[in-house]
Amino acid sequence: MDETRRKKYDELWEQREQLNRELAQILHEDTQMDVQDYELTDHGGNSLRLSDCFGEHDKLVLIHNMGKHCNYCTLWAEGFNGVWRHIESGEYGDKAAFVLLNNDTPEQQKVFAAEKGWDFPMYSCHGTTLFSDLGYQVERDGQTYYNPGYSALVKNPDGSLRRVAADSFGPGDMYCSVFNFFNAFPQAAGEAGK
Questions:
Q1: Which residues contact 146 (CB under 8 A, 6 or more apart)?
Q2: pLDDT digits (tens, 9 = 90+) for 88-116
Q3: Residue 135 in 3-state DSSP?
């Protein structure tokens, strides 16, 4: 890369970083809400509360997953399997617990997680209004649709829960690194060799 192109690249990189900071600020400001302590179900069929997912932490990254039928959600979860422990350790940022929730039955989750080799905490919120209340479920034309994304939650000293940020997942987003690799290749045969 020549010096002029390198300078342009560096300028665009900084613009992207600035935009990411601005987007994060908007998500932080516009998605806050109190969150109830929903009842969840583990793979053994046992009940637990959302607050239990925090463990020793006062922060929680809650992944809203559409379930085993969604190839994209599976793609994101594959990436989370490699990073969730880093989130919990706090080695590179704030220490937070990590959990993936969806509406699959506990048995479906157990089988699918074993098949994929997922070892992060995963619970069913089937039968609750969690997805709807947090904005990841919509009703359209008599059908229920779930959307993937995350909510960043905090547990206050009084035990109450609050969402402090949230975002949706989608192709090309910053939550799934594989798309950056796809962008490295020419998009059309005519671009090859450029």
A1: 64, 66, 67, 102, 103, 131, 136, 137
A2: 998 988 999 999 999 999 999 999 999 99
A3: coil
As a whole number of angstroms, the distance between CA 145 and CA 137 comes to 6
Tokens of 64: 């809203």
- What b/e readout covers 76-115, taking b as 16+ CB neighbours within 10 angstroms? bbeebbeebeebbeeeeeeebbbbbbbbbebebbbebbee
In 10 A of CB 137, how many CB atoms?
17
For 47, 67, 159, the CA distances from 128, given in Å and listed in that order, are: 12, 15, 20
pTM over the 0.90 mark: no
Which DSSP letter does residue 125 get? -
Q: Which among 69, 63, 45 is positioned nearest to 136, based on CA atoms? A: 63
Look at phi and psi of residue 156 and say left if phi exceeds 0, alpha if psi is from -120 to 50, else beta: beta
